[in-house]
Design brief:
This protein has 337 residues and is α/β, with parallel strands linked by helices. It has a single domain, classed as TIM Barrel (Alpha-Beta Barrel), CATH 3.20.20.210. Helices cover 43% and strands 12% of the residues. It contains 13 helices and nine strands. It has a seven-stranded parallel beta sheet. Strand 7, helix 9 and strand 8 form a beta-alpha-beta unit.
Length: 337
């Protein structure tokens, strides 16, 4: 078939249509750049062009959604060390009731809108989709309060619900600002949809009811909307019903596998790369074999190759190249296994 543009390739994968090759996305944090929206935008666009990947997953620092509510954040600003929480913003149960709603352009949230604006400007009309990272309200609450969240939601559920309402409204404002900035979609990330932390009933009450409010804001406005389920023992079947059109999880280290996921959902699958083992430590040949296995498991239709989460910044450049080049002739790769 004819060579597709990156947007066409992603759109075809999202809709289960034929592709000229299986698309790929690669992403990592850049903690030496992520406090400057322009610097981070330049870094991410340059990375996408260097490795010829098919979309840009914006990677703002992981605590952007809590700093404005009083989390004390330690910035190391090195290439390999991400920001850390020094002190949580929720110290007692009454703090949940003191949270205020922010506009989408406010403070640290607003810097990530600037990131999206800068990426759009740098692409100069090039047909490369880019998606903004948003966190589930419950994930933001966990970062904001630490592990006291889980005792508070049992002992003081009304207070936690009050906080989640504010977090949700602020995230909705952020979503709207990013749509105005021109993003292609959103990478919705939850770190709490795991039975290691909550029962499915607890997640339904404190997670899903707020998650779905976010999706309602953009599911019909943007074309590339990823559901990222972080961790082990995940609630895959529950979140596979969310109204995103692509799903991403640590498929190489926790269930279901790409092959098993095909039996559960007809959404596009994004995964196949073990970012902390093969991509980081493997040889060029190891990475290529790894990608071939992923395509064999997921098939060439409705699949985007990518990591289960952010790649390690110490990953060798040759391994990024190997992952991309492994997809040059995906039909031959599948039939040759």
């Amino acid at each position: 078939m004819a060579i597709l543009t990156k947007r066409e390739r992603i759109e075809n994968a999202l809709n289960g249509r034929e592709v000229d090759r299986v698309p790929i996305g690669l992403w990592l944090h850049h903690p030496d750049r992520d406090q400057d929206p322009r610097a981070l935008a330049e870094t991410q666009v340059a990375f996408a062009k260097k490795y010829d990947i098919d979309f840009i997953k914006l990677t703002p620092f992981g605590l952007y959604s809590v700093q404005d509510w009083g989390c004390k954040v330690k910035f190391l600003c090195t290439k390999n060390d991400v920001a850390e929480i020094e002190d949580h913003g929720i110290k007692d149960v009454d703090d949940w009731n003191r949270l205020g709603v922010f506009p989408g352009y406010y403070g640290t949230w607003g810097k990530q809108v600037q990131l999206a604006e800068q990426v759009k400007k740098l692409l100069k009309g090039e047909d490369i989709p880019f998606i903004q990272t948003i966190f589930s309200p419950l994930t933001t609450a966990w970062k904001l309060a630490g592990n006291r969240l889980f005792s508070d939601l049992k002992e003081n559920p009304a207070a936690v619900h009050n906080g989640l309402k504010v977090i949700t409204e602020t995230t909705v404002n952020f979503i709207r600002a990013n749509i105005d900035a021109g993003v292609s979609g959103f990478f919705f990330a939850t770190q709490c949809a795991t039975t290691n932390l909550l029962t499915e009933e607890e997640y339904e009450e404190f997670g899903a009811r707020y998650d779905l409010q976010l999706f309602s804001e953009y599911k019909d406005e943007t074309f590339f909307n990823v559901i990222h389920i972080h961790g082990e023992n995940i609630m895959f079947e529950r979140l596979a019903k969310y109204p995103g059109n692509c799903i991403n999880w640590h498929d190489r280290t926790t269930g279901p596998s790409l092959w098993e996921a095909r039996k559960i959902t007809d959404k596009c699958l994004l995964g196949g790369i073990s970012e902390n083992t093969v991509l980081l430590k493997g040889s060029h040949d190891d990475v290529q074999k790894h990608i071939r296995e992923a395509v064999e498991l997921g098939g060439t239709s409705g699949l985007i190759i990518g990591p289960g989460c952010v790649a390690d910044p110490r990953t060798p450049a040759e391994n990024y190249f190997a992952a991309r080049l492994a997809l040059e002739n995906n039909v031959a790769l599948v039939s040759g296994l």
